[in-house]
Structure formats: C-alpha cells, structure tokens
Amino acid sequence: MKRFFVNSAATFCVGLTACTTTGVIKKEEVSLAQTVEQFVERQFRAFELPSIPFTQQQPKPKLASGEALYDAYFTNANPSQLALPARNLKVFCEAQGGSFSQIEASRISASKLATPEMTSSDVFYGVRATYREMGAEPQLANLTAAYEAHFYQRFVDAYYPQRVRDTLSSMQRGGAFGKYGCKRADQPLWVAAIEPTQFTPSSDPQNLLLTASMTLYIKAVTLKKQ
Hints:
Elements: E1 11-14, E2 18-21, H1 36-44, E3 67-74, H2 84-95, E4 99-105, H3 110-113, H4 120-133, H5 138-159, H6 162-173, E5 178-184, E6 187-200, E7 212-222
Antiparallel strand pairs: 1-2, 3-7, 4-5, 5-6, 6-7
Helix pairs in contact: 4-5
C-alpha cells in the first residue's frame, strides 16, 4: 500500500479505539482532566498499517503508560509533522497554565537514520571479491562490480537523497526532537522525550505526493509534586 501525503489538519481513526492526529491542536481542544501520559497515548499512539504487518519475527511493540510510536510523514516542502509532537505537547502545557521548553537536544541523528549503512564503494569491493572467489577474470570482476555500484548509487540518490537528510537536520536543529519540560510557577509538572527511531523512504521519490516517514518514539511522565 502506498502512503499518500495527508492534510496537516486531518485526523485518522481506526475503529473506535485507535486514533492519531496529524494537526496542531488548539488550547480549547485540550481536556485538562487528562494527564500528559493520557494525552500522548490519545494523540500519538500509532495504529497498525496494513502495509506493515506485525509478525512473530517482528512483534508489535508493547508500549507502557505515556509512550507512543508516531509515524511523521513528510516531504521537503512540508516537514511539519516532524515537529508535531513537540508542538502539541507545548499546547497541552500552555493549556495547563505552564511554560514549555526544550531541556536537551536529541543525541540521535535523524539524518544518519536516513543514510544507508552501505556505500557504493562497499558494493563495489563486495561484488568484486565475490566474483574473484568464483574464479572470474579480473576484468569481468571489475566491470560487474562497477555496474552494481553504479546502480546502487542511483538507488541511494533516489530513495535516500541528501535533501531528505538536510530536512531532517534542519528540523532537529529547530527543536523537533529531544527532551522537554513543562512547569507552572517554577513547579515542574511533567517531562517528555521525543526521539527519531526509524526512517522509511518514499515508495516513489519521483512522485511529490508520496511521502517519506520518520517513526518517532514519544514518552511523557508526570512529576510528583515537591
């Protein structure tokens, strides 16, 4: 199933139990009867997509209270969903009469998650070594390795382009990921963390309507009153 660009104000619900938002909420939409843990669960718990079946080899993650996995879909022209968890947590904090701030930037490089582990050089030397072990002539081994490395680089340029890494780096510098705190009258109310965990490239980089995604891990904890 291809994943299409979604309106930033849309809300998706599956059945009656699983919902996730893709838009910035307003203060008047915040229920002050809920804890920050409940807010995170209701706003950002990812629902199971038909295109990503969970198997015994890849079990559905068990989330604790206040945890969520949120798939932030983005293009270079519209990366707003990457900052959505931090923005909505800020709105929730301000609705409680608090002030929201970033305590620490994320130590995980989002752009690195969007960088393939193998380079074209790795492919070249790996293929060449394989052909040499098979007894191929050096010229054939070199030509085949160069061919494979060339097409691998074309794949990387298409599905893991530098512009995607630049977008992720820009959003990270802007405070989209890291540790945050909410306090009211110098009294800490809660803390939260937002960390990038997994990058999924667009299924068709040439189609500007199709998006890449970054799965964000979100965790919020209410602090005990001192």
